[in-house]
Every structure is written in structure tokens, then in C-alpha cells.
Amino acid sequence: MKFYGLFLLLIVGSICSMTTLSVYAQDEANPLEPEKAPPKIFIGPCGGYNRVFSSGPYITYNDAISPCPSFTSGSANGFYAGLTTEFLIGDPKTSKSSIIARFLYNNMPANFTYQDKTNTLPVLNGGGDVVQTTTEWVSQQKYTTFDVDLMYRFNLGNTPIGFLAGPSIGFALTQEVVTDLNLLTPNNAVFQQTNSRTIRIEDQGFAKDKNPLRIAFKAGIQYEIILKRFSVIPNINYNFGITNIMKSQSWRVNVLQAGVDVRFAVGSIF
Predict the structure, then answer these.
(1) Closest CA to 188 of 267, 115, 123, 101
(2) Is the bond into 109 cis (omega within 30 degrees of 0)?
């Protein structure tokens, strides 16, 4: 019985030892099999915040009695969302540069305000007297595009900090402009056309006059956080518009973009 028990103990010990060695061997590189190359292609979602800066001069309508002023600058908050891909350059183990492509939906609105206290409009008050007015024009722009970014990234030494630069081509989706003429003073006056203190001028041919392409140059900085199965990359970019967004007027859109890319190695998701 003692011999049988010792024999049984040896068998169990041998099995445990072989199992341990087998598990350990799986973690080590097998000299009989080629080592898998690190991934070079990464893909994932991205999104972020747009701070939009639009610049003119441009006008939104023509009226002999109340001519539209020339709007020079406007701003608003927007967003972007889409897909990001990265292709490492050189050996993936030591690569410090890559090509990054992004396919984005960009929402880039802007609000313009012009207040004129010198060129006043005469109106009749309730007593039939002529009084001078102070007016304000507010122009609201709705502008969305589908953008394709192609940027070159290089890291600062062995740090996770990277610098990016490259072109961006945007395909205009929507462009709408609504302008409100607001009556500020006197307080007891209204516009006869609307019987209110605001006249709204809807889009007057802006959709037809829009430039179908917006070409820009982007440059920025990123910080890559490598996790177990994916990377998280916060980044800030400045999107400088080169072309006008309208054919007949000088109107450009620049955007400060702050967002996050999440990228998975292609081999880890297929």
C-alpha cells in the first residue's frame, strides 16, 4: 500500500510538473515557429469638440432701405465624430512615425453679430413722431462637412508625445444662413412688416453659392496611452481653412479641435 501510494504520488507530481512546463512553454517563444510580427495597422472611432472661428467679410442679403452690414468674424461651438486609422512606418517595434487618416463628420456653426449705433433707421412711434432707432444684425451659420484628413505623425524621442500635420479635404453637406435684424431702441417701437422687434431674413441662395470643397491644413499634438488591447490618444489640432466656403464671397472657417482617438490593432479585432 505504501508503494502504491508513493507510486500514485509520483504520477500526480509528474502530471503537475508537465502541465506547469507546458503552460510555461506556451508563454515562451517557440523556436520551431516564427514569432508573430507586431501589428502595423490600427483602426477605431474618434470624436471631439470644435471651437469654430469664421471670418469674412461677407453679407447675407441686399436691401436698399436697410442694407446688410459686412460681417467680419463669428464663432460658435460644434463637434466632430468619425473613424481613425493609423499605419506605422518602418519596424513596428521601433517605429516613431506613422500616417494617420481620419474620416469625419464635422459640425462647424458660427454666429455673427453687428450692432450699428450710428447708421440709425427712422421710424414712426405711436404718436406719429419720427424717432431714430438702434439696430443689431445677428447671422447664424449652419455648416457641416464630410472630411478626409491625411496627417503625418512623428514622436518626440521615446516619449508618447507626437506631433501631427497634414492636409484636410472637406465635402460640404449643409450650409444654411439665417439673419435676424433686431430692434434695440426705442423700447416701444416695432417693425411694421412683422409687427415685432425682429425681422428674419432666410437663406437667400447660400445653398446654391456654397463651395463644394473646403481645403484646409491641420497641425497638432497628441499623447498616446497604450493599454492592454487598445490605445487611447487625446489630441488637439488647429484646422486652418485655405479655401472660401462660398464661391462669390470671402468667407473662411478655422477650427480648434480637441478630441480623443481610440485605436485597436487590426489583428485584435478580426
Answers:
(1) 123
(2) no
